Amino acid sequence: MPTISMFYGILVALFYEDNKRHHTPHFHVRYQGSKASIAMDEGSVLAGYILGKQLKLVQAWLELHRDELLANWELVTNGEAPFRIAPLQ
Fold first, then answer.
1. Strands ordered across the beta sheet of 34-39
2. pLDDT tens, the chain, 89 aa long
3. For a disulfide at 75, which of 38, 53, 59, 80, Cβ 3.0-4.6 Å?
């Protein structure tokens, strides 16, 4: 699971060929022991849990980088390595 970005203690990652479980473009976040799968279209939590404040940071980051995330989604679903995405600053 390559980490593609890190900000404010939040790790953002994509799994290779991870389109079978949720059937929608998504990424994974981890923060202090909590983890969640986040939909790329609207930023909703598909599975897991992350604190509200951190979820809002993740959703803000998603709004800024949605096109890059979708490009990375195409890469990983084809078994290719994703590229890094700038953190939220």
1. 3-7, 10-13, 26-31, 34-39, 45-48
2. 789 999 999 999 998 765 555 578 999 999 999 999 999 999 999 999 999 999 999 999 999 999 999 999 999 888 889 999 999 98
3. 80
